[in-house]
Amino acid sequence: MEKAVGEEPEAALVGPTCLTPPQAQVLSHQTFDYIDPTLLLPSEPQELLVSMELGGLYNTEEQSLLGAFLSPQSQAGSLSARLDLLELHVAAHANSIDRYRNSFDAIAFRRFFSVSNVKEFAMIFCRKRHYQYPVVHWPTFALEQASLPLLMVISLTGATYSYRPGHGSENITDARNFYHLADSYIFHELKIFVDNLPSGGDLSEAVELCQAALLMYALDTLLASDLDMQQLAVTERLPTLISAMRRLHFIGCRHHPSEDWELFLRREHIIRLVSWAFCADCLATLSCNNPPIFSMLEMSGDLPCDPTLWDIDSVLTFELTKPSPQKTSYCLKELISKLLEENWRADIEWENLPLFHLHMMLCAFQHIIFNLHVAMFLKQQSDKLLQTLDIWRHLWERALERIPNDHRKWLGVAKNVPDIEYLSRRVIEISASPEASSSRYLQRLPSRGARDIHEFIKDFISKK
């Protein structure tokens, strides 16, 4: 999996990757409301970035931020202090748990979580941000101000994404050595926060803890050979995260036309967290037969905004780019309900649904298929579901047509969505056939990993 992520193309670095948040910078008069992904940063930034202008892609603000990111003096003391504090907190957590008490290696920790490594790992993660779970708003993110759990998991994720053909995998191996301890620490911190919720106040810490938990869940599920970790992630960690978001009233969050940029970002962070956690829940149902955690009825909040709006780095650009109050705001519950109507008819809004909304809709179908199957209604509803998947595929193809060919390599995990649609189709077809009894996967028993669905693919798709 690390190799697959490492071979993903790198998107242009949004200058704000870290160290000094844009609010502290002097805004230039020239702003951009897009990031051109065809202009990439070089693979070795330490030698080339400082003097490189990249054909005018970056405005003065972004060049300044890149300089601050690479400068050994700029904010390095603050980040170093945060990393020292992270070590103290993680060491204390390790000492409180028998499993880790005698295994915490302070020297290895300091070597991996050095200032230079953490900067590099954050930059790698930012470049690969399109791949999966784009929940961090890089233009306003600052490493030295991030919560300790988020600082830790961003470093681990960047190291995990650092694979390059022909280069060593030391960073990936070192990162894996910290997965178990990081998982324990991050979810421990989330539990403490949720158990002692402050009344009112700023929810920024809650958002960052949930971000850290979701990103850690993603790393946990990378360990295909560690079935215990995968089972822990699916059966305990994901329910813990979703329960926390319910208690924090994150689910159902919606934008308001009158909101300013700060409020927009606060709500969009939450919307993206809920949306990607929902996708993770649906894929756990598909791959492990894990019963759904989310209810479709609670998915009444907005879906994520367009990436060009999300990547904006200034108030001025936001005011120039934000959608008009009349623009349709999408809700997953309503989209699925309408798509399942008997007399569904496409209109201009449906024909222009964004790709990620369709991504989420297909994820939602995993819950529908599972629930109908365990209730023994899947066979009766199979024709309707297959017709609905036909409609979905048409809408997906229309959405894909709107993306330039040279930009499709930045689809990340979305490029696999049509394969999931075909797999869903085969699950429905085989479930309604006499062959269903020969498939362990179709018995709908929760599994510790993805072996059952791999066997289903081998028996009913690869041989087809």
TrEMBL record:
Transmembrane segments: none annotated. InterPro entries: VerF-like, XnlR_reg_dom. CDD domains: fungal_TF_MHR. It comes from Neoarthrinium moseri. Pfam families: Fungal_trans. One of its GO terms (molecular function) is RNA polymerase II cis-regulatory region sequence-specific DNA binding. One of its GO terms (cellular component) is nucleus. GO terms for biological process: DNA-templated transcription. This is Xylanolytic transcriptional activator regulatory domain-containing protein. It is found in: Nucleus. Residues 125-365 form the Xylanolytic transcriptional activator regulatory domain. Keywords: Metal-binding, Nucleus, Repeat, Zinc, Zinc-finger.
